[in-house]
User: Which sequence fits this backbone?
């Protein structure tokens, strides 16, 4: 028991340390742009606009990080409510939401009317985190989404496939670790906090779903989620 408590304590300290680091980075960038505005922005509209856009982007990034941290912190208190929801409608909502954040994204999806019994809010968060990863690591290639029904197994299978940088088997092994980011050398210009898939795993467990992920470096990643009909 003491060993478990010690391990848990170390993980909590590490989590706080990593969270603080992730929050400090955008704050440092915002501070830099504020200094830029003070020095030159008042006289140069171009610098002023550049700084405002960057501050806005960093603020959005911080808001997303805080949302994810709050979800992880409150995970033990979350109670899922299972109701009949239409899967395609949720997916279309997630696509619309992410289009505002990633206007250049190219997402292919043909709606397939599918009723599942699950928690709508958690399903939205689940799909949004997976789809956001596919967009960010997709190297500006299209992202394909499809729903297929397996009547024999009484399942609906949601597949999200990108054609981006992909992952090695070793990286795939750590995909659910908090603050883990695959392909660091190739993805250093991609914004992210390494919390999305950690949240995905927690939602999968909360809703008692199955997930399958396959990936090949420089070819892309495919995520499949299995919903009971």
Assistant:
């Amino acid at each position: 028991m003491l060993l478990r408590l010690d391990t848990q304590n170390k993980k909590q300290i590490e989590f706080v340390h990593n969270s603080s680091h992730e929050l400090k980075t955008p704050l440092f960038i915002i501070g830099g742009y504020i200094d830029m505005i003070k020095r030159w922005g008042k006289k140069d509209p171009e610098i002023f606009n550049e700084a405002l856009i960057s501050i806005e982007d960093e603020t959005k990034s911080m808001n997303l990080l805080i949302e994810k941290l709050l979800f992880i912190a409150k995970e033990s208190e979350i109670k899922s409510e299972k109701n009949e929801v239409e899967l395609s409608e949720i997916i279309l909502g997630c696509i619309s939401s992410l289009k505002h954040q990633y206007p250049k994204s190219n997402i292919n999806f043909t709606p397939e009317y599918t009723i599942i019994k699950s928690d709508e809010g958690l399903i939205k968060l689940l799909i949004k985190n997976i789809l956001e990863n596919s967009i960010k690591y997709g190297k500006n290639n299209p992202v394909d989404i499809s729903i297929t029904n397996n009547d024999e197994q009484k399942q609906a299978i949601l597949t999200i496939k990108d054609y981006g940088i992909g992952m090695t088997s070793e990286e795939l092994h750590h995909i659910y670790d908090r603050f883990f980011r695959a392909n660091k050398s190739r993805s250093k210009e991609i914004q992210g906090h390494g919390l999305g898939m950690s949240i995905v795993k927690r939602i999968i467990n909360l809703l008692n779903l199955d997930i399958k992920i396959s990936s090949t470096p420089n070819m892309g990643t495919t995520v499949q989620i299995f919903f009971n009909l």
